[in-house]
């Protein structure tokens, strides 16, 4: 008998360690031989702690399991959810980037290879840098960090830049509320990120890489450090990558609690040991990035998707998706939902299907009022926008953005004026301070929303004007996109803004 | 005043990272891990070692939410205030905990037992409200649950 329990921090946060301790105690008491394998997450967070038991006929799922349930789970009398892979939430997915996550032991390279790992790197090692970049371009992969910039074009710029040293920097700052895909893949399948970074290095001619990983993720930092050490020991990293004579090595660096350091130039300053102030562009980081040298900055999911593109081929990957949004996107379903977790699917599924069918509506059972998509800089959509297909251009067309693909669902008890105020407050707390519309504007924004709450109808116009100034006059998207949640709340839910209500009367 | 480590204690910590590209953040994290805060004397040591002005080093320290100039309480509780946790009641949870402990955000109880800080997302957004106590995350937390977590940690 084999037993699988996730070691993902979401599983641990809801008691996985206690369940494992109870399982061990029960196995010892019964004198039963069984192996407990700690995997990454299957992404079905609402079922955590999830226990999977394989008695030779596939993995049967049980969850959420409490320590007191383990005897029943072991003897098979507890009610099972059936085979994990047949749970509708799981069965409906297209798992490419997350294919191994939840299946394998994250820190076992042998397991990794047995499930397709390193096949992409081996293929890339037989290709020229130009061919590698062309493959990524052909896959249609776009940056998963938020801006959706074509990854192949970025790599090509770095490839063509002349320099003695170039860098691959992985953006693992994942500060958006409602997102955890980066964390989940780093904790659940860290070698795929490492492999993706090595391929990026081969493609653009960079010999060194860094992962800038937020300090709020201590488990991910620990797993990544272990994985890098294991990869180095196995010759996946180092002076002679898989015996090819090519070299690539990397380090994990910890952030220090600043949201803005997810912005790529701020991140580079931070990595250099400076204040995380945003840099003006140009110069592009691709030409003058870390320490002034050509640098690829890519999100975790962008890089972690590279191995499957090389394993299965660009055409295979590009066959999924919708329009210019090719491939799959790990949608993170969070907040007030019945079924929260990570759902990887081809681009194109309508927002409403994700919220109502996949997530099963709210956890509270009350009607959905709003969904914020794309983190604290993303717009709030009401049900009237539930037809919007999940794609970069489609969301843009509706006045929103998909960002890092987090969905935060709110039920009807949400106060949208409060959410708009929070967006401004967050911007004020996290502003890097470089430009006035963001640094001062966000503070004025909070005050103006308080005036609206107090019934001052004239303040509504002030808020709209202020948002225009922030949009037009901010150097980066922190100041520039904070108006998305604010204005979408104001325009989509005017009934929550006392001042607006009175003005209308 | 809390005891300040000497320059002799600080110097080796700083030097251990000087071979890195961009060593300042790793140094600051290491100092805080060892001493619980960034000692004042360390600014001079870092400035000298990195050929920066003391003002520049102070500028870096003050930019980041993580670095402290004084030690925190014996335990550090981070409560998530971000949107996904708000959607499942984190505001009420925070109000109840802050009230119970008698502190405001960033405050430390008078007995030095615990410091409470806001955090904007722990990546536990599908199992909120979330908190982190001394580096360990907890999800689906309600007020009684939070008290139990604190008690179990001996707070
Ligand atoms: C305020 C702000 C925060 C950001 N946070 C992140 C982040 O946490 N992770 C990320 O990958 N990109 C983040 N970005 C986007 C990055 O600037 C950049 O576009 C991205 O890392 C590029 O990688 P990609 O092309 O693979 O998406 C942020 C941007 C802004 C303006
Ligand atoms: S918009 Fe805000 S965070 Fe961005 S550069 Fe300007 S001040 Fe800094
Ligand atoms: S919003 Fe609270 S953990 Fe992400």
UniProtKB/TrEMBL annotation, chain A:
Q: Which Pfam families match?
A: Complex1_51K (PF01512), NADH_4Fe-4S (PF10589)
Provide the taxonomic classification.
Bacteria, Pseudomonadati, Pseudomonadota, Alphaproteobacteria, Rhodobacterales
Q: Which organism is it from?
A: Pseudooceanicola sediminis
> What name appears for this protein in its UniProt entry?
Formate dehydrogenase beta subunit
**InterPro entries in the record, alphabetically?**
NADH-UbQ_OxRdtase_51kDa_CS, Nuo51_FMN-bd, Nuo51_FMN-bd_sf, Nuop51_4Fe4S-bd, Nuop51_4Fe4S-bd_sf, Thioredoxin-like_sf
Q: Which UniProt keywords are present, listed alphabetically?
A: 4Fe-4S, Iron, Iron-sulfur, Metal-binding
The UniProt record lists the keyword 4Fe-4S = yes
Task: Spell out the molecular function terms from Gene Ontology.
Answer: 4 iron, 4 sulfur cluster binding; FMN binding; metal ion binding; NADH dehydrogenase (ubiquinone) activity
The entry assigns this protein to a family as follows: Belongs to the complex I 51 kDa subunit family.
Query: What SUPFAM superfamilies would the database entry show?
Result: Nqo1 FMN-binding domain-like (SSF142019), Nqo1 middle domain-like (SSF142984), Nqo1C-terminal domain-like (SSF140490), Thioredoxin-like (SSF52833)
List required co-factors. FMN; [4Fe-4S] cluster
The NADH-ubiquinone oxidoreductase 51kDa subunit iron-sulphur binding domain is annotated at 417-462
PANTHER family assigned: NADH-QUINONE OXIDOREDUCTASE SUBUNIT F (PTHR43578)
TrEMBL record, chain B:
Binding residues annotated for [2Fe-2S] cluster, in chain numbering:
80, 85, 121, 125
SUPFAM superfamilies associated with the record: Thioredoxin-like
Q: Which cofactor does it need?
A: [2Fe-2S] cluster
UniProt keyword list: 2Fe-2S, Iron, Iron-sulfur, Metal-binding
For this protein, the record's InterPro entries field holds: NADP_DH_HndA-like, NuoE-like, NuoE_N, Thioredoxin-like_sf
Which Pfam family is one of this chain's hits? 2Fe-2S_thioredx
Q: How is the cofactor bound?
A: Binds 1 [2Fe-2S] cluster.
Could you tell me one molecular function GO term of this UniProt entry? Answer: oxidoreductase activity
Q: State the similarity comment.
A: Belongs to the complex I 24 kDa subunit family.
The entry's protein name is: Formate dehydrogenase subunit gamma
**Naturally occurring in which organism (per UniProt):** Pseudooceanicola sediminis
